[in-house]
Every structure is written in structure tokens, then in C-alpha cells.
Fold these 3 entries.
Entry 1:
Amino acid sequence: MWKALGKVALAAIVFFVLNLIVSIPIGIVAGIMDAMRNGANVTPESITELLQSNPWLRTASYTLSASTGVVTAVVLYFAMERDRSWTLGWKQDGWLPKGVLGLAFGALLIVLAFMIVWMAGGIRIVDVVFSNEVFTALLFDVFLFAAVAVGEEVFSRGYVYGVVKRSGGIAAAVVVSSLLFALLHANNPAVLSSAFPMLNLLLAGVMLALLREWSGGLWVPIGVHLTWNFVQGDVLGMAVSGVETPSILQVESANDFVSGGAFGLEGSFAVTLVTVGVSVWLALALRKRDAAAEGHGSFST
């Protein structure tokens, strides 16, 4: 188990170093564009604002960052797992219907959380917007959130989950991969605004890890991750882990404790309820499946 944790630590270091490396060219380009726009009044804040407001820079930044998760997982898997006794989970029979199932389930879950917050008086819907800006954002953000979903799932639920499960079992794999998943978002805006953001990131990691185990691969969690983020931000108008996006629904917080405030739905109690509920259901389903397999094995012998 300690060897597996050492591999996880190495994976985290490689991931963060690669993220730092790919951020340099994006930062340089953004700085040049900001200087062309503002002259000598270039600040880290103005560069960050440009990175978030320019769809090309924003998509390139998040996509390059997400790609480091895939690169880290693939390189370490082929370099260190020479016996190939486990897989990353992307080669999966029936990957397309499982991916579609994940897309539908992710959208359903985040809409459910949104409805809970709305009915509890946490948000007000103030407008519905169909504009060129929103339409453009939807096109860019489908690609952006797909890249984020693939990158984070291959890294967290592919490599980290697999390497820990091999020596420590399912429970250890769920815990370690979920903790690291939460830490990956520790620098997000408003993540420390209350206890809920980090708690819900951890619980979302648990839910996605159990979905990986339940489905036998990565395509269900990738689908869930994609629509969870996309629908939350570009459709429902909530911040996605603290990051704002143009959206169809325009909402305002009526109660930050209920709505999640600047962090979005993942900072609310509603996501806690949803992720705990789904995780309990998945854990029971896995236990039932294991019990049935053991019973079948005993009967067969």
C-alpha cells in the first residue's frame, strides 16, 4: 500500500509540474494580448480577467491543463505498471451507451441540486438569455468541459484509483482518489468561502469513484462530470467550482448559505444531499452485486 501511495504522490507532483509548464505559454500570450489592450497597465488581475473572458484563451488554458492529467496517467501507467494487471478504464465494451448514460445522469443530478436550492429560496431566476455571446460560450464550453472531464477522470479515477485499488482495495482507492481530486481544486476561487466547497468536492470524488467501480470503466464518470459542469454553468447560470461562465439562465443568490454563494452549487448543502444519496445507493448496489457473485460462486462449487 505504501508503494501505491508513493506512486500517487509522484503522480501529483508530475501533474502539478506539467500544469505549471503549460501555463507559461498561455500566460505569456495573455500578457501580450493584455498589453496590446491596456498598454502599460498590465497586472496579474487583468491577465486573469482576460483568460476568463476570452473564449479562445479560456478554452486553450483549461484544455492544456486537463491534458496534463491524461499525459501523467498514461506515462506513469506504461512506465511503472509493467505487468499491466489493471487498466486505466477507457477501453470498455459498450463505451458509447455508458457515456450517454453518464451524460444523462450528470445533467439529472445537477438539475436536481439546482431545484433543491431554488425551492429552498437560495436563488432567484432573473432572466433567460439567448444571445450570440451565450451561444458562442456554449460551443466553446462543450469542448472545454469535455477536456476537463476526460483529463480529471483519467488522472483521478483512471490512474490514481487503479494503482491504489490494486494493492489497497476499493475503499482505499475511493478515499485516496477523492482526497486528491478535492485537492486539485484547492486553488479555485471561493473554495474556502465555507466548509461546503471542499466537502462537496470530496463527496463528488467519492460518487465518481463509485460510478467508476459500478460501471467498470471511465465512460460513465466522464459523462457525469461533463454535463454536471456544463449544465451547472452554461445552462443554469451557477458558478462551476467558483468559475463563472456565460449562461442561458441568469440567477442571483438570495441566500449564500443555501445557494453556495460565489462557489456555485458545489458550495451548497443540496450537492451534499445529492452526492451522499447517490454514493450510498452505489455502495449498496456494489455490495449486493458482490454478495450475489459470492453466492453464485459457492453454489457453483
Note: DSSP finds nine helices and two strands in the chain.
Entry 2:
Amino acid sequence: MRFGLALMVLGASGCGAILGADFDRPGAGGDADGGGGGGGGGDPSGDGSVAAVPAPVPPVDGKCAAGKTLCAGLCVDGSDPGYGCGSTACTPCAISHGSPTCRAGACAVGTCDTGHADCNGAPTDGCEVDTTNDRAHCGRCDTACTAPQVCANSGCGSSCPTGQTNCGGSCFDLESSPDHCGSCAKACPAPASGGVATCTAHVCGLKCAAGFVQDGTECVDGRGWRDVGAGFSFACGARMNGSVACWGFSTANPSSGTFTRVAGGSNDACGILTSGALSCWFGSLPTPPSGTFTDLSIGDVHACAVRTDGTLACWGSDVFGQASPPGGQFKKVSAGYRHSCGVRLDGSLSCWGSNGGHATEAPGTGVYTDVLASFDYSCAAGTTGITCWGQGAVAPPNGVFSQISANSSLICGLLSGGALGCNTNAGYAGPPAGAFRSVSSGSQFACAIRSSDRKLMCWGRNDSGQSTPPP
């Protein structure tokens, strides 16, 4: 039974004395649009203040008052940039090299970091000009250095100071400039939104705005979903910021810690912390084993996990040997009712525990990417489709899947391109359209995370609220 897993406040370098060069300083300090000099940042409204934003409040009878938007289970004010200024998407505002505010219900530049300015007035690129070394906006917007002068440390001069290099008339520290990282014109790739590129000791990186977290080479909304694990009649999800929320029959959440993976079983919930350690917060499973792990699955009264070295660890009831895994290295594991199965590094299968209904008699040949152990049957996703075995095996969905999940009779998985595929779930609607990054099946319901916005979507049985996830 595959119950389980299936700010921007960026400091700019301050101005300093330039030795061995004669520089003009065209002005310092001013508001973010550069009207009073873009070097020092400030308030584009000109009054030097930022209005207080009302704190988010819980909804009343599931509804928000007028002027409020429901975001992540809270009613937020339309003037709160942390929730997108009233946008139904609730994505935090992010201003490159500055901090956001709201104007007319939209994200806008609030203040710019020292040394940056919003010279074009467009919030989409934030405080886009580095006035410390921009030849066309040296020290403030629209104050250009006359050729052959260069701009360095917010002033125009005849040459670049020690430690900086002339790149097209502007002076840059190639150790730390994201536009000239290691050499002139070698720009570091910037995320599509929610952050800026960085350069440290000639190495490119990125820094995400407040409310965003790094996901590979991008900055994404920290309230989006990273992983979901469906239990029998409940589910839990881990957000990109590491927080966990559970819904349905059990709404118990972990009291502390941030998580990258979550799993649900018949009556248990566990997860993998950002440290790689295991933690369980609901149910009757004993304390999980120590160590660091990459994959986790919970069955009826036992659970199994894959260590970072590929070996397996199982805990809980071992009456049928379901918690006594074989040796060797694995990449996936699934804990079922009275048996368990895993995918080895070479793609072969191993199952252990009760062989009732021949549930542990896995195919001896083939290469597989994922496996599930259910009540008295098992299935594996291979290069030619899903193969199932055991007395209680049901007809799986057609296609080649990268991930599969099942609880009882409902089998769902991710097809090529991220589309969902499920077998018949009698009396309930099928899966939503679109591309998804993760899916997990419970008892006659399932949940999946959409790739485009990391939104959590559930469908099927909902008598305990298990198909109504938090926003």
C-alpha cells in the first residue's frame, strides 16, 4: 500500500574613497525613482514613510471580510506585499535590489537598497540600476559620466580604482559583480522572478527575496508545495519553505522542524527533515531510526526509508517480516499492508514480508523506476508501463510512468511530461489536467502538486475533508 510519498534586501557595496583618481560625485541619497539621486534608496512616494500593513487574521466561518483575500488559510489585506497586494495568486511581491510596497492593488517599488535605483519606474525589474558604477546613471538616475570618464563608487573619474576593472566605461569588481563575474560581460543567470543573481569569488549564485526560497536555479514562493503524502483518509503536504500542513481525518501537524518529504499511512504521519533525519508526529509508530534519508513510505503498522547510502531501514510491526528489508542499495521503497517492496539502484525489484496473495513475487527481470506495495498486491513502473502482481491486483492505468502511488484500488501516477494517469475510481471524478511534479494516492482520493505554480490539487472521496487541501 503506497501510503507515503507516492527581502529582497541585498546589500550593495558602500561608497568609499578612490585612491589615485580624480572623481566628480554627482549627488548622493534620494528616492527610489532617482528624482533626488538614486544612490541612497528611499520612499518613491516622497513622504519618507511606509504605511503600516494590517496583520493577517483567520477567516470567520471560512470567509474573509471585504477588502481581504484568503491566502494560505489567512485573510490578508490588499495592501500587504507579502501576499501579492490582494492578488488571488497570493505570491509575495519581489523587488530586485529593494523592498516592495503596494500601489493601486499591485506590487510596486517601496525602497531601493543603497547603491541601487529604479530609473525606469517599472516594478517588474525593481531597482534595476547599480548607481555605484553605471556610466549612464552614476550616483543617481540620468547623471552620466562624460567619455572617456568611467563610473566607480558613485562618482565619475579618469580611471578605475585598484581592485576594479573597466568594463565598457564602468568599473566593476570581477570577484563580486553578477554582470561581470570573473571577466567583463560574463553575466550570471538571474532567476525568472523572486530573486537576483550573485557573484562570489568568481562563482555565480542567486539570492531570493523575502518569502521566496531557492529551488534549483529559481526562486519560488515559499508557500508553494514541495511534497505531498496521502494516508488512508487524510493527507499531509510540505511547503517549499519547509512547513507542513495536514488535512482530512487527521489535522495534526509537527510541532517543530522544516521538512522536504512527507508520508501518510493508515494512522501515521512522518517526514524527512531538511537535515535528512526522520520525524513522526501522528500515530502509533515507534521512534524512527537515526541517520539521514532520501525516501520514505508508511504502511499499515510499519514504515521503511532509504538512507543516503542507499541501504534500507524499516521500523514498526515485523510480524510478517515486513520490517526486515534485504541488504544492498535501493533508490525507492514502498511499505504496504503486511509486505514491502523496493527498487534497487540497477532498477531491479525486491519484496519482503507476507507473501499472502503472492504479493512479494516481484518480476525477476526488467528495469523499473518506482514501486508500490498495497494490501495483497504490488505494482512497479517500468520502461513499458505498469506491471502488477498478487491476488488482489487491479488493472493499472495505461502508459509509461515515472512515479506511481496506490492505496487499496486507486492507482495514480505521473506520465511523461508530468500529466496524471489514474485507473477507474468508481463514483468519483478523475484527475485534473495539466503537468504535475508529485502525486500520492489515499483511499479513493489522491493529491498532486502542479508544476507551473506548485499548487496542491486533490480529487476523489472527501467525506473527511481529505480532498480539500489548504491553499
Note: The CA atoms of residues 395 and 423 lie 7 Å apart.
Entry 3:
Amino acid sequence: MTHRGRNSVYCPFCRNPDSRVVDSRMADDGSAIRRRRQCPECGRRFTTVETTSLSVIKRSGVGEPFSRSKVINGVRKACQGRPVSEDDLALLAQEVEENIRASGAAEIDAHEVGLIILGPLQKLDKVAYLRFASVYQAFESLEDFESAIALLRHEAEVEAKGADAKRSEGKSSEKSPL
């Protein structure tokens, strides 16, 4: 519904279809805008929170709102028995949502969400990553697991060499006190 060419925000007190924005701020983790408004009719102030909608399209073709809790529940299964806290899972879900929102898409395929989870999960726990990847990358044989493990080992070696090079660089730049 529009009023004078813009979206109306009805005053929750007097139902006036007009309001004036007094203050706008980012809320939560930047995924919402909090606006303080004032009604010109009754003079009372109220707050609105504006968020963008993000829909996940399931295999059946049905869309549903993105849910961090569904991400957490799916990843929790892969993390069973691993040293991963609830806070770790919440941060992972936040990172996944931020990655999806950064793409600018209003809709995303559920399988694509699973693939996006892989990056943050790999950083969090390698074993949980392998468990999750075996489903979302459709591992069909031991060779698929071996390839994924070989890739993880290679990435760990590259990371270690980079860290060693930085340490060596830091030592060579230190001056001797003599």
C-alpha cells in the first residue's frame, strides 16, 4: 500500500497512514535497518525494523524463508562428537547467511545453501567438513573421500608453508642487539 507515492507505515497507536523517520540505524549484524518514527497525527514514536527477505527453494520447488536454525541443525549432525560449540555453529550460520546475502539474490536453491556451508565448515572442523561434503558433493566411493582428504592435506601444507615463510620473514627483519 502506498501513500503519496511511497510505502505507508501505519502508526500503531492511531492508525494514521503517515509517519516521519526520526532516526535510522543498522541493527543486529547489518541485515536489518531499525527506524525510529514519529506520527504527525498523534505525535507518538514507534520503531520499525526492515529486513530483506531471502527464500530458499527446496527440491520440491516450494520456497521458504532462510533459517539460520536449519543451517545449524544440519551442520550439528556433521559435528556430532566433534569439539564444536553452539557458539561456533551460530557464527557459521551467520557467515553462511552473510555470504548468501552478499550475492544479492532474493532466492537460492537449498542445495546451493549446502555448498555454501562447506567453506566455513572446512575452516571450523575438517572431519565435520568431510561428513557434510560427502552428502552435498554426492560422494559415491572411497576414492571420493580420498580425493577430498588429499585436497585438505594439500591446502594444509600450503597454509603451513605460508605461515613458515611469514615467521622466517619476521626473524630476518629483526636486528641483532650486537
Note: Confidence is low (pLDDT under 50) at residues 1-5.
